[in-house]
Fold:
Amino acid sequence: MSALLSLNNIWVEYGDKVVLERVSLEIAAGSFVSIIGPSGAGKSSLLRIILGQETPTRGSILLDGIPLKPECGPDRGVVFQRYSVFPHLSVLGNTLFGLECAQAPFTARLFGARRRAAMQEAENMLAAVGLGDSLHLYPAQMSGGMQQRLAIAQALIKRPRILLLDEPFGALDPGIKADMHALITRLWTDYALTVVMVTHDIREAFTLGTRVLTLDKRRHDPHAPHRFGATAVYDLPLTKRISPPKEKDKSITLDDICNN
Amino acid sequence: MRWVNRRIGRGNSILLGALPILLLALVYLVAAAGRHAANPSDKILPLPSGMAEAMAALLFQPDPLSGTLIFWADTFASLQRLGLGLGVSTLSALLVGLLLGVLPPVRATFGPLVTGIAVIPPIALLPILFIAFGLGETSKVMLIFIGIAPFMIRDVAAHITALPREQIAKAQTLGASSWQLMLRVALPQAMPRLIQAVRLSLGPAWVFLISAEAIASDIGLGYRIFLVRRYLSMDIILPYVAWIALLAIVIDLMLSWTSRRLFPWAHGANH
Structure:
């Protein structure tokens, strides 16, 4: 397997506070990387750097061997814990947005046959995440689980090279979390995704991931705790893949499209 | 039951809301009747009959000098100035606010200027406006514009700047350019806030309108009030003030209704 994303000697410093130091990683295409670590270990910083929202102080990031531009782009999809969807657009509008941006640079809106084609694609994508019956709802009318499903559909319709998840299921209750785990595993297989997920749920990290990275500080100066940054202290490839979650027989959700 | 937990039903809330207004009217009537009992030609607290008589002349009889129905001509002139001032302010707030809010270089360049203009008391600029634009309509509209536009611009810009960073990042991962982000993400989310800013600016806009009309004008609601003050004509001033209040309430309700109608997603989950 070739390295899709490689980070070379990444450092992140805010003033004299070192957040990440000497992070070097190779992420293979098709892998599902879970990143865990204590609070403040720079998990989210690392994700924001891959996303392009932040620039590393030192080091370089290559995607397919090409240095990443220091801004977000359509080759990297993202789902945040919150605020991932646009409150002023319906479910369909949220999903269409990515297609409209690509196909209509000036108006960012599609009309006629192209709109119908885009709507068809968006509807298929929404059906795949279980939102096929909620096309015209607004995010404020939906539960947290449904909003995260929408955020995933919105990201996947752009066919990103790599999907970044920043504690995507952290705010959901356990039953819905299990449904979402099944969903993301299915999408990961179906769409041959490469996923990097930050989580503070260790079980989730090991259930979903093919590789688990632990970020923590190797060195610690008690008089200046901010002087040393975190790095990948454990890098565990999980050879044993759990069998794909079997079709659930008993579920908390009320209907079979998981409209939780 | 604690007072903080008392819920007032719709019918009771109308009743309670009307109570102080009716009480105030009653107190006025008693005071006016008292003064008229002592002096039948009292001008300070006119009775409703006196107000109706004075207003009837302005409402229904053409002015012998200009041939217009004065009350309606005043209303039309004032609303036109107010509408123009609010319109120009709203448009520039949307445009400038959007640019300031979305594009950091524009914000860095023009933010301090807008803040600087916003802290100048607009009335202090009135002489400059009179000198620059003459005593006609332009200077009055400009006073309203200078009075409320900076506040509205800053409000809209601040609202856009405060959009979650996650949302802006998400839009870019979906391929949005700066322009597309402005058009499809920032603009629609700025609209309800813009209407909110117009509603908040209505009060100051009326203040600037009445001030401009009081200082240099020959028509308008503010002009009339200040004109008849010379004759202690409370029987005209009071109905005019009530009319201005009514107009302001109607405009405010219209804006609020428009916002709910056009942007239901911005007004709570139950839409």
Observations:
- The interface with chain B takes residues 51, 53, 71-74, 76-78, 80, 82-89, 97-98, 100-102, 105-109, 138-141, 151, 154-155, 158, 160 of chain A (CB under 8 Å).
- The first helix of chain A runs from residue 43 to 51.
- The CA atoms of residues 3 and 28 of chain A lie 4 Å apart.
